[in-house]
Amino acid sequence: MEPNLPCGRTSALGVMLLSALVLAGCAAPKNPAQRAPVVDRAPVPASTAASTPLPPGAENAGKPGYYTVRPGDTLIRIGLETGQNWRDIQAWNGIVNPNVIEVGQVLRVVPPEPVVAAAPPAAAAVQGTAAQPVASPSAQGRPLTESSSATTTAAASPAPAASPTPPASEEIRFIWPANGPVIDPFDEARNKGVGIGGRPGDPVVAAADGRVVYAGAGLRGYGNLIILKHNNTYLTAYAHNQALLVREDQTVRQGQKIAEMGSSDTDRVKLHFEVRRQGKPVDPLNHLPRR
Where is the LysM domain (predicted)? Predict the structure, then answer.
């Protein structure tokens, strides 16, 4: 039989039990299944990812007067292929280090068009009167000055567009660069010139007047090489020499000795001779006098 407890003590005991239950509930461990929410972050769209930068000059790819760099190209080779001085190509494209070009880069291989200065604005009309044409100095009895004549000519006759066909004046009468026999015939696909036989030290002469645009051994497969530029249409190349007797930017005359025959970067003594017409190799025998 339970003991009889006073009413006050019963209430106090109930409060104590209720408080104990509340404290026990607060101290109970959290449900391990209740974790922090995970934010589902979608992957970054491909359109927002950083794109690979295009090679320099890519916007000019395919345009006339531009060349896209291919594997193995150098400025020297590009100059030979396009009929230009490799130093000019370097300058036209602002290339600091000529040994650093990248595949896919697009280079200008024709001279930039000259910037034509704008004509000076016409004199303002006098307020309240219409502008009147000014009589030419000759009409006023005064001789034309150099400046006025130049301005009139420029305004009357704009510069003609460049002709796609080289003028007849660009054609050249070449001479043989060496005296030996032809031992390698021209083949545009495999042999872009002719091989002329000889002995070590035989003279190699300039086939026509021109300027040395390259003299060195920086073009693989050509050995000690000289390239002459004769005009805007023709280049000639002289390869496999044992000694070079001219330097870049030097002017040479037709028949001048420019090298000595050798076997650099080839298996026998010979002169590899090329004629390039606007950069395209043509058969030298069609441009040399018959023997």
Answer: 65-109
